[in-house]
């Protein structure tokens, strides 16, 4: 989750009072933030995903000011629109756009920095890295509304950070942002935000114009969101608008009308907020302890809500930037947090109404492991993820591959436990002259192309003194110890020497195989000794022993 | 221990004992232990145990005697040379006539004759006592008859003293001990001696050639025992100072053993083990769990997508329900295609989801301890495949407080110490919590993530309204590392036999 950096003096200015280390630590814990670094000048913390309002200093300062009761939460007043946004000619593949205006802001370079941080963190956590929503901020005084959001074949403007005009195509090819996000736009139908003079505000979602960027001198800010998800966009716009509105003492938030297109909203931002009813009993029911009404009301206020106490419920106003709150449980969590998790009176886990038990396959596995150790083999443990090349020595492609492996060593899921045991043999090869190992674990096999998990027992013997006989002895010993009848029949299995491999039948049903590994294969992995390996499906074996007929 | 040896028996003795007995028999007379040990070239204390053993076998008898070692003192030597002081006095008296000698004159003459004052008065006393000397009216006279007797007696004394030159050892106290000690003529030292001699039985057996030196063996064998010869051989004493090797111990993997212990704890708390597939549709891994399709945890950097050739079955009702929930609550365009993408499960919470779908409402609790996958590069604290301990408590009455209490109980069962709780966020629980325990080096570490499933999740799996579910998904590997004393997570999954052997037994298995 995003790492957020704020300057401490700036934060204190936003909160309105000086903050001790304890104040910061306590407040951050209440907002699920994990402090990475706290010095006299700076705070770096990991914000949790559900609090995007805290992705910059403004929202953090606001939240702390409520917790420390410097301010009380209030509903937002939004001035009616004085201008509009025309989206009638927006590109079909990215058809939505909303605007909001915040007047009388006071910014310094830390403020500008924080607003950019907010955009960046929101893009990554909520906007699918700009694919769903893209955010832009502009100096309103350098723009002449109304604003148009349209689709163009080409255009030119000076992009942010450049000194001369570039065409849209050039921007896509020659700038960082162009390269990164060009897959989100379509050639010949580029999205563009312009003002009434035709001046370009931005080429969303790629890059803004240099000419109307937000600076320390900016007094009035225009905020835009464009994209494919209108409701998500509105939430993001609400977060940004309410954060920008923290920058200044006489700030006015002004709505902007949307005309044309098929957006679900006519006007933005939507700072009405939601009302959620929280039954007083719900608190006890969910949390397991109760609080008195006065405490609850105090807590709700500290956590940033405006709450009205009724007889047996609370009417709670949810601020528009709390896009994580969907209903009662979200408010109740904040009540629990405000009360303090460390104040929750703990007792014991309630007694169980049922008997506990191990899964039958785990019990069976445990028995098999006892038997294998009893025969003198050492248990090893391997990953299910494995190098596809090793698998291909055996299974002929019938295994689950990864679409996005990170390392070649772990690029597929094993469908047999023998390749894993072979890897174990490779690791111990230099240190021993003989090896007797086993593993009981899961593999994923494809049954008509559909993956199923199987529990296997596999064993491997490495050394000059071993032949197929020794492998068969293990299979037979296991079978008879479990009370089954044993039979071995010659079989051809990839990876094993022809004529030195057998399928194992228990009570006449094939449950596994044992064989001598082909040196053509083992030597490729650097194993120069004879290797005998075998595996048996425990799912199958168990069914067979319990008397079910095959498959 | 003592056993009567029958006359007809062949006797097998330890070589040491054989040598000892033979020496005693050959000596022909009782030997004291010191003498015997010097014949054998050993220290006395070394042979005593063998003597006792032979004694308990009835072959040697031991007599403890006290002997008296008498040596002349300086006085004794002096009197032997110069005569007893009373003899000197008598001569003085005789030289003065022997009768009616004034005492003062006697005293003066005695002094001239070399008698010391003490010797003089002691002699006077002694002679007076014996009646040899009469003192009447300040005059001293000799009794001639008694004098003869005294002279005889002194003669005897002198003879004895002569024989004491050089020190003599007596078997019994002698008649003159008391007198001579009293007069400090001798010192008598009591010497304890152990006299050893073979018993008649021993002599007889020896004569008949029935006493043999036994063989020393280093180990018993079936042969020795079956033949009875074990009675007549001597087992070499074991040298415990020599180190012994260890046996090759094949064992269950210590990490798996720890996981079994965790299972045991959960089962003991009434949890029933559940299992689910390693490859899940995104629907089960994310969508049912109310994770929006735009959530960062669904990116290809955070989840392994799987290539599955066949078509995985999906419950269409479930699909429809989940679509409705995402669309109505989160209000974004939900993609069925995205939900049907197969992934390697990133957590075992889908197993909980399947369990609730299968079992519905009720009072039960379930757990799962199985593997999950995340695209991480292996390093000391991360792996791309690891175990998760998942659990749910389904009940009409389960609460957030119960969840925290459970974490505390689990921490107690695993001896993890104090637990601290902090607010946390998971897309599928609300309220959520993260429990921390204190690691001796790393400080507070997060190990207990959990929460109450959101209503949207419970709606998705069709759980009736009146039920709540407390849930958690613990990264059990971190805890395993603490308990097994391991600082690199990769060591848990090692298959290097040397590392496996070195792994200590988890203390809580022994407690």
What attributes characterize this protein structure?
heterodimer, A: 551 residues, Phenylalanyl-tRNA Synthetase, Chain B, domain 1, Phenylalanyl-tRNA Synthetase, Chain B, domain 3, 7-stranded mixed sheet, 16 helices, 30% helix, elongated, B: 511 residues, alpha+beta, 21 helices, 23% strand
Can you describe what's shown?
The complex is a heterodimer of chains A (551) and B (511). Chain A contains 16 helices and 29 strands. By secondary structure, chain A is α+β, with helices and mostly antiparallel strands. In chain A, the strands form 6 sheets. In chain A, strands 4, 5, 6, 7, 8, 11, 12, 13, 14, 15 and 16 form an 11-stranded mixed beta sheet that branches. A 7-stranded mixed beta sheet of chain A has the order 20-24-25-29-28-27-26. The chains are: A alpha+beta (551), B alpha+beta (511). At the A-B interface, α4, α8, α10, α11 and β20 of A face α12, β12, β14, β16 and β17 of B.
Topology, element by element:
The complex is a heterodimer of chains A (551) and B (511).
Chain A (H helix, E strand, L loop, with lengths): L2 E5 H8 L5 H10 L3 E5 L3 E5 L10 H11 L10 E2 L4 E3 L9 E8 L5 H18 L6 E7 L7 E6 L3 E2 L8 E2 H7 L1 H6 L8 E5 L5 E4 L3 E2 L11 E8 L2 H15 L7 E8 L7 E2 L5 E6 H8 L5 H10 L3 E4 L3 E6 L9 H12 L20 H15 L3 E2 L5 E2 L1 H5 L8 E2 L9 E2 L4 H11 L6 E13 L2 E13 L5 H14 L4 E5 L5 E11 L2 E9 L1 H4 L8 E7 H9 L5
Parallel strand pairs in A: 4-15, 5-8, 5-15, 20-24
Antiparallel strand pairs in A: 1-3, 2-3, 6-14, 6-15, 7-14, 8-11, 9-10, 11-12, 12-13, 15-16, 17-19, 18-19, 21-23, 24-25, 25-29, 26-27, 27-28, 28-29
Helix pairs in contact in A: 1-3, 4-7, 8-10, 9-10
Chain B lengths: L10 E3 L1 H13 L3 E2 H8 L3 H13 L3 E13 L1 H9 L2 H11 L5 E2 H10 L4 H13 L3 E4 L2 E4 L1 H20 L4 E3 L6 H6 L3 E13 L1 H8 L3 E3 L2 E2 L4 H6 L6 E2 L18 H15 L3 E2 L5 E3 H4 L20 E2 L8 H15 L5 H4 L2 E3 L4 H11 L4 E10 L11 E11 L4 H14 L5 E5 L5 E11 L3 E11 L1 H6 L7 E8 H9 L12 H6 L4 H4 L1
Parallel strand pairs in B: 1-9, 10-11, 12-16
Antiparallel strand pairs in B: 2-8, 3-7, 3-8, 4-6, 5-6, 13-15, 16-17, 17-21, 18-19, 19-20, 20-21
Helix pairs in contact in B: 1-3, 2-3
């Amino acid at each position: 989750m995003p790492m957020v950096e704020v300057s401490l003096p700036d934060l204190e200015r936003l909160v309105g009072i000086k903050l001790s280390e304890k104040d910061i630590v306590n407040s951050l814990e209440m907002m699920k933030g994990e402090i990475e670094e706290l010095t006299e000048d700076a705070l770096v913390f990991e914000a949790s995903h559900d609090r995007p309002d805290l992705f910059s200093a403004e929202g953090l300062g606001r939240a702390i000011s409520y917790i420390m009761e410097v301010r009380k939460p209030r509903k937002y007043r939004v001035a009616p629109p004085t201008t509009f946004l025309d989206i009638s000619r927006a590109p079909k593949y990215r058809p939505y756009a909303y605007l909001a205006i915040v007047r009388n802001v006071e910014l310094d370079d830390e403020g500008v920095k924080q607003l950019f941080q907010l955009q960046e963190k929101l893009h990554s956590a909520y906007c699918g890295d700009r694919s769903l929503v893209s955010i832009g901020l502009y100096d309103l005084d350098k723009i002449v509304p109304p604003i148009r959001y349209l689709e163009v074949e080409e255009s030119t403007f000076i992009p942010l950070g450049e000194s001369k005009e570039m065409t849209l195509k050039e921007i896509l090819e020659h700038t960082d942002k162009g390269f990164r996000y060009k897959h989100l736009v379509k050639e010949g139908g580029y999205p563009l935000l312009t003002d009434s003079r035709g001046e370009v505000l931005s080429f969303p979602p790629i890059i803004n114009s240099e000419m109307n960027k937000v600076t320390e001198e900016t007094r009035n800010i225009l905020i835009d969101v464009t994209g494919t998800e209108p409701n998500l966009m509105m939430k993001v716009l609400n977060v940004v608008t309410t954060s920008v509105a923290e920058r200044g003492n006489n700030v006015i938030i002004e709505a902007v009308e949307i005309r044309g297109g098929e957006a679900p909203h006519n006007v933005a931002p939507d700072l009405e907020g939601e009302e959620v009813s929280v039954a007083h009993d719900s608190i006890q029911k969910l949390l397991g302890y109760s609080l008195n009404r006065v405490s609850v009301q105090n807590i709700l206020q500290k956590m940033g809500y405006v709450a009205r106490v009724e007889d047996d419920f609370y009417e709670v106003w949810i601020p528009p930037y709390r896009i994580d709150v969907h209903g009662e449980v979200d408010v109740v969590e904040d009540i629990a947090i405000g009360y303090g998790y460390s104040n929750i009176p703990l007792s014991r886990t309630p007694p169980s109404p049922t008997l506990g038990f191990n899964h039958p396959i785990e019990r069976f596995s445990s028995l098999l492991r006892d038997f294998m150790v009893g025969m003198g083999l050492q248990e090893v443990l391997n990953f299910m993820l494995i190098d596809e090349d090793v698998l291909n020595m055996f299974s002929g492609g019938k295994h689950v591959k990864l679409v996005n492996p990170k390392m070649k060593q772990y690029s597929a899921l094993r469908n047999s436990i023998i390749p894993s045991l072979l890897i174990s043999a490779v690791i111990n090869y230099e240190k021993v002259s003989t090896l007797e190992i086993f593993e009981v674990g899961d593999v994923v096999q494809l049954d008509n192309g559909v993956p199923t998990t199987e529990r296997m027992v596999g064993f491997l013997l490495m050394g000059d003194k071993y032949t197929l006989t020794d492998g068969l002895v293990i299979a037979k010993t296991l079978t008879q110890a479990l009370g089954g009848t044993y039979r071995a029949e010659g079989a051809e299995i990839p990876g094993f020497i022809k004529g030195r491999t057998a399928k194992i039948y228990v009570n006449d049903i094939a449950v596994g195989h044992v064989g001598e590994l082909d040196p053509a294969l083992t030597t490729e992995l650097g194993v120069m000794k004879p290797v005998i390996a075998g595996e048996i499906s425990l799912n199958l074996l168990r069914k067979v022993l319990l008397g079910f007929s095959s498959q | 221990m003592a056993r009567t040896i029958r006359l007809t028996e062949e006797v097998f003795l330890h070589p040491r004992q054989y040598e000892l007995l033979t020496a005693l028999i050959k000596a022909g007379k009782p030997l004291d232990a010191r003498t015997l040990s010097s014949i054998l070239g050993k220290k006395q204390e070394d042979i005593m145990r063998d003597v006792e053993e032979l004694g308990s076998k009835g072959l040697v008898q031991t007599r403890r005697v006290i002997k008296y070692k008498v040596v002349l003192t300086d006085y004794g030597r002096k009197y032997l040379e110069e005569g007893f002081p009373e003899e000197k006095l008598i001569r003085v008296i005789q030289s003065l006539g022997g009768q009616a000698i004034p005492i003062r004159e006697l005293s003066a003459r005695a002094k001239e004759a070399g008698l010391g004052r003490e010797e003089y008065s002691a002699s006077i006393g002694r002679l007076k006592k014996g009646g040899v000397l009469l003192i009447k009216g300040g005059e001293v006279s000799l009794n001639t008859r008694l004098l003869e007797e005294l002279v005889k007696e002194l003669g005897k004394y002198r003879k004895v003293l002569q024989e004491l030159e050089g020190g003599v050892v007596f078997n019994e106290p002698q008649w003159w001990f008391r007198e001579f000690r009293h007069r400090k003529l001798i010192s008598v030292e009591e010497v304890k001696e152990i006299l050893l001699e073979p018993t008649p039985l021993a002599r007889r057996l020896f004569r008949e050639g029935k006493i043999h030196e036994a063989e020393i063996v280093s180990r018993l064998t079936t042969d020795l025992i079956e033949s009875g010869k074990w009675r007549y051989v001597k087992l070499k004493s074991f040298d415990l100072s020599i180190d012994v090797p260890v046996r090759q111990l094949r064992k269950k993997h210590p990490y798996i053993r720890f996981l079994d212990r965790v299972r045991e704890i959960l089962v003991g708390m009434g949890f029933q083990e559940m299992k689910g597939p390693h490859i899940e549709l995104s629907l089960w891994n994310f969508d049912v769990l109310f994770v929006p399709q735009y959530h960062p945890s669904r990116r290809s950097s955070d989840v392994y997508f799987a290539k599955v050739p066949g078509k995985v079955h999906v419950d269409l009702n479930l699909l429809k329900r989940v679509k409705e929930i995402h669309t109505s609550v989160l209000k974004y365009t939900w993609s069925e295609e995205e939900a049907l993408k197969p992934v390697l499960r990133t957590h075992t919470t889908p197993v909980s989801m399947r369990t609730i779908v299968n079992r519905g409402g009720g009072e039960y609790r379930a757990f799962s301890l199985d593997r999950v996958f995340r695209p991480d590069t292996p390093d000391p604290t991360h792996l791309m495949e690891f175990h998760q301990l998942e659990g749910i408590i389904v009940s009409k009455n389960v609460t957030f407080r119960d969840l925290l209490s459970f974490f505390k109980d689990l921490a107690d069962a695993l001896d993890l110490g104090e637990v601290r709780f902090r607010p946390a966020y998971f897309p599928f629980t609300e309220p959520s919590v993260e429990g921390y325990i204190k690691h001796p080096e790393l400080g507070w570490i997060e190990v207990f993530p959990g929460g109450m499933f959101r209503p949207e999740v419970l709606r998705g799996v069709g759980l009736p309204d009146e039920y709540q579910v407390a849930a958690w998904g613990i990264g059990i590997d971190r805890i395993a590392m603490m308990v097994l004393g391991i600082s690199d997570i990769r060591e848990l999954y090692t298959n290097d036999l040397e590392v496996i052997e070195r792994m200590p037994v988890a203390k809580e298995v022994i407690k």
